[in-house]
Design brief:
CATH class of the largest domain: Mainly Alpha
Helix content: 40-55%
Oligomer: single chain
Number of strands: 6
Radius of gyration: 19 Å
Shape: globular
Strand content: 5-15%
CATH topology of the largest domain: Endonuclease III, domain 1
Largest sheet: 6 strands, antiparallel
Number of helices: 15
Number of domains: 3
Order of helices and strands: EEHEEEEHHHHHHHHHHHHHH
CATH architecture of the largest domain: Orthogonal Bundle
Length: 284
């Protein structure tokens, strides 16, 4: 992958290794919008990037180049990751080829927590709509585009259950208010959470209202870069039966895959999930 850093710009050539559409549309992030056929706007915390792409190059335009260089995990060698997965698990070849350009985003932890509480038993269109409304109500408008920052926990502390009800959060409104209250405590500071082991951090996340095992694993992977987890949903559950023919619980499915892929579990999960979601959707 050929990467060139310019003022307010990251230019990436050889897009087979960096596919922005695959990366954004594979269920790991919701605070983005496709503004043209080949352009996205991504909002992360109080920063934004405009991404233009075609078959040969991707241009990330932003004043926060270092932030989005890290956000899109550009320094990580995904070809090596895929080779390591394939070497030990040849049966994963079709998953890896199908999602060849996916990268795991390094997202703001608090934004990820709020996003995935909203995502529970929800569809992507509604999730994105609710999150944009949350930003519009409680975030800060950017100077040069018609978008708002994702609000801080302090800004969100002003939100009431009625506020969330009005924007369509439904039963998740209570979850959001109670979880936001807990996230304001020292116990849930990012510094303290980052110091915990994956298991300890998962137990801490499960104390947040609206966070179950699957949502906790998503937060661990996408918000805290813990790649030793394997979130299980309907599509991953279906994929399990491509590997094993016995029924079992989601917890055991997650353990099965983590035991199989070890510290590459999060990467493998995203390739498998993306394949199952898109290929099965096309067949249905």
């Amino acid at each position: 992958m050929n990467i060139k850093i310019e003022e307010n710009k990251i230019l990436i050539q050889n897009c087979s290794e960096f596919d922005i559409e695959q990366t954004l549309e594979c269920g790991q992030i919701f605070s983005f919008k496709k503004t043209k056929s080949n352009t996205y706007v991504v909002i992360s915390d109080n920063k934004f990037a405009t991404i233009e792409y075609d078959n040969s190059k991707t241009i990330i335009k932003t004043k926060d180049v270092d932030y989005f260089y890290n956000f899109f995990d550009i320094k990580t060698d995904y070809n090596k990751i895929k080779k390591d997965i394939l070497k030990n698990h040849p049966e994963t070849e079709k998953f890896l080829k199908f999602g060849n350009g996916i990268r795991i985003l390094k997202q703001n932890p608090y934004q990820t927590i709020i996003s995935f509480i909203v995502s529970a038993n929800n569809n992507i269109k509604r999730i994105k709509n609710i999150l944009f409304k949350i930003s519009n109500l409680f975030g800060t408008k950017f100077n040069n585009i018609d978008f708002y920052t994702f609000p801080t926990i302090k800004q969100l502390s002003k939100a009431t259950k009625e506020d969330f009800d009005k924007i369509g959060a439904g039963y998740r409104s209570e979850y959001l208010v109670k979880s936001i209250n807990l996230l304001q405590t020292e116990e849930y500071s990012i510094e303290n959470l980052n110091c915990l082991s994956t298991l300890e951090l998962k137990q801490k996340l499960l104390k947040l209202m609206g966070v179950g095992p699957k949502v906790a694993d998503c937060i661990l992977l996408f918000g805290f870069a813990r790649t030793d987890v394997f979130p299980v949903d309907t599509w991953v559950r279906k994929s399990y039966y491509l590997f094993e023919d016995k029924k079992t619980s989601d917890e055991n499915i997650s353990k099965y895959f983590v035991n199989k892929f070890k510290n590459l579990s999060g990467y493998a999960q995203q390739y498998i999930y993306n394949y199952m979601l898109n290929c099965n959707s096309e067949q249905n």
